[in-house]
Amino acid sequence: MYDKGDVVMMKKPHPCGANEWEIIRMGADIKIKCLGCGHIVMLTRREFEKRLKKVLQKKSAEQDD
């Protein structure tokens, strides 16, 4: 699955051209940040799961906040 801190790829790229997003908040809604331009988007969990293509990179153990 996916968790806070993971880098994911969505089905459609962001208008800036990047297609990598970092999950920065998890809950009923999921907040993701574009790694190309830094734009933050909040989606419902259902919408996020529909748009998710794959998890590119899992959060490493050293990155715990």
Secondary-structure topology with pairs:
Blueprint lengths: L6 E4 L9 E6 L3 E6 L5 E5 H7 E6 L8
Antiparallel strand pairs: 1-2, 1-5, 2-3, 3-4
Strand order of the largest sheet: 4-3-2-1-5
Low-confidence stretches: none
The averaged pLDDT comes out at 91
Order of helices and strands: EEEEHE
How many domains make up the 3D coordinates?
1
Overall strand count? 5
Instruction: Report how far the terminal alpha carbons are from each other.
Output: 20 Å
Please give the share of residues in helix.
10-25%
- Compute the CA-based radius of gyration: 11 Å
Describe this structure in words.
The protein is mainly beta and 65 residues long. 11% of the residues lie in helices and 42% in strands. It starts with 6 loop residues before the first strand and ends in an 8-residue tail after the last strand. The chain is built from one helix and five strands; from the N terminus they run ββββαβ. The longest helix has 7 residues, at 45-51.
Structural key phrases:
65 residues; mainly beta; 5-stranded antiparallel sheet; 5 strands; DUF951; DUF951 domain-containing protein
Task: Provide a short characterization of the protein structure.
With 65 residues, the protein is mainly beta. It has one domain.
